């Protein structure tokens, strides 16, 4: 089970975007995710009439390593580490390390 999933609200803990909050848009591979508004770069894009794209300079969100982000804990309003807990019915769930609350209700 992954510690960070698509749709999670995360905080960047290192790098040039440190402190920014955003939502995970997608997982690129096992160790990289794309976060909305984080690690944004300018890309020079050529026009493509087949895909109906105009040319110019566009902003693009690039992948960031999962070690540089942490899940946002709404109870403490800070970034928090994630642990796992097996419930009585055998389900494995993610919990916040600081207060032990379940991440997904």
Textual characterization of the structure:
- This protein has strands at residues 9-12, 21-27, 32-35, 40-45, 56-61, 64-65, 69-73, 78-80, 82-86, 92-96.
- Helix content is 0%, strand content 45%.
- A hairpin with a 5-residue loop joins strand 9 and strand 10 (92-96).
- It is mainly beta.
Total DSSP E strands = 10
> What is the number of helices?
0
The CATH architecture assignment of the domain at 9-79 turns out to be: Roll
For the termini, the CA-CA separation is 16 Å
Largest sheet: 6 strands, antiparallel
**Net shape:** elongated
Strand order of the largest sheet: 6-3-2-1-7-8
By secondary-structure content and strand pairing, the structural class works out as: mainly beta
Strand content: 35-45%
Instruction: Report the mean per-residue pLDDT as an integer.
Output: 94
Keywords:
0% helix; 105 residues; mainly beta; SH3 type barrels; 45% strand; single chain
